[in-house]
Amino acid sequence: MKQTLKNPYLPEPAIIKKKVRHSPDNFSLYLDWHAHYSPGQFVQLSVLGIGESPISFASYGKDYVEFNIHEVGRVTHALAKMKKGDKVYIRGPFGRGYPLDLLHGNNLIFVGGGCGVAPLKGAIEYVEHHREKFRDVWLFMGFRSPDDVLFKNQLDAWKSSFIMNTTVDQVKPQSCYAGHIGFITEEIRKTELSNANAVVFICGPPIMIKKTVEILVQKGFHDDQIFLSNERLMHCAIGKCGACMIRGKYTCIDGPVFRYDEIKDYKTD
Ligand SMILES: Cc1cc2nc3c(=O)[nH]c(=O)nc-3n(C[C@H](O)[C@H](O)[C@H](O)COP(=O)(O)OP(=O)(O)OC[C@H]3O[C@@H](n4cnc5c(N)ncnc54)[C@H](O)[C@@H]3O)c2cc1C
Ligand code: FES
Fold first, then answer.
1. Distance, CA 118 to ligand 1 centroid (Å)?
2. Could you tell me if 17 and 34 are in contact, meaning their C-beta atoms sit under 8 angstroms apart?
3. Whether residues 64 and 177 fall in one domain
């Protein structure tokens, strides 16, 4: 992806067009901001006087950009207090996204866990826009509980174009939830998936990624058919500070999307 020539340290203002809450600690901001980006890339989103955080694109469209945010600390709590019409600041786009332009003609398998579904959503919307360029597309989306399910409307809409599998890990007693219960990795294990002309994109908690990769390898997938999104602490986002390095690679410029063989020997624990 070609980076723009503007000063990469200088944030630009953007107005919040819409805010949608998905769960008690998760929401999306739709911003009136235009940039040439590919799904899987990220921006540094900031609130003046508080700080900035790397946040991935959760959309693929021309009229607005969507960022989906999980509230965990200072910046994300400050973003959660903002409303339609407020101003945030953005640097970016940064990093390497999903190589979708190079994968036309392939079967695609998306595996998302919790907030990890958000960066994949941008890639899935790309595939929706270019549906005729891809063959079969499977979506495996896992959430902790029915209350944690994100993008409910989109999940329903995607059923018409893709082979959908959505699960929640557990439900409360007397819950009226009617969908699948169990880990999404078990759905992947049970599904007949061939590695012929297939590429997999995974984004989610490390344990889900690890199990998914193990299952895919058992099913015959090769390391270079699997792409992972990685999260690391970041500061500069442009390959200068070294905060985000994995095995000599910068997550901010060589990633955050990596082909599995590029980082497979890196141990996080
Ligand atoms: C490339 C990339 C894309 C991301 N995309 C999204 C996204 O789309 N939506 C979203 O909600 N979050 C995303 N994140 C994570 C998000 O950037 C962090 O949760 C955020 O920076 C936390 O900022 P804060 O000030 O709210 O929390 P802080 O107060 O800074 O931190 C809260 C806690 O989270 C830990 N933490 C902060 N950042 C990270 C990190 N990157 N990795 C591991 N632990 C961390 C801190 O050590 C602390 O324990 C992304 C991260 C990266 C690197
Ligand atoms: S965040 Fe500074 S080098 Fe990647």
1. 14
2. no
3. no
pLDDT of residue 248: 86
- What pLDDT, on the 0 to 100 scale, is given for residue 172? 85
The protein residue whose alpha carbon is closest to atom 52 in ligand 1 is 231
Ranges under pLDDT 70 in the chain: 1-5, 266-269
Structural element, H or E, at residue 212: helix 206-218
How far is the centre of ligand 2, averaged over its atoms, from the C-alpha of 235 (Å)?
6
Which of 94, 110, 138 is at the close of a domain? 94
Task: Please tell me whether residues 104 and 221 are part of one structural domain.
Answer: yes
Does pTM surpass 0.90? yes
Q: Is the CB of 232 under 6 A from ligand 2?
A: no
Q: Which of 49, 64, 94 is the last residue of a domain?
A: 94
**Full residue range of the structural domain in which residue 186 is found:** 100-229
Whether residue 6 lies inside any domain: the answer is no
Buried b (16+ CB within 10 A) or exposed e, 96-107: bbbebeebeebb
- Taking only the tens place, the pLDDT of each residue in 209-236 is 999 999 999 999 999 999 999 888 899 9
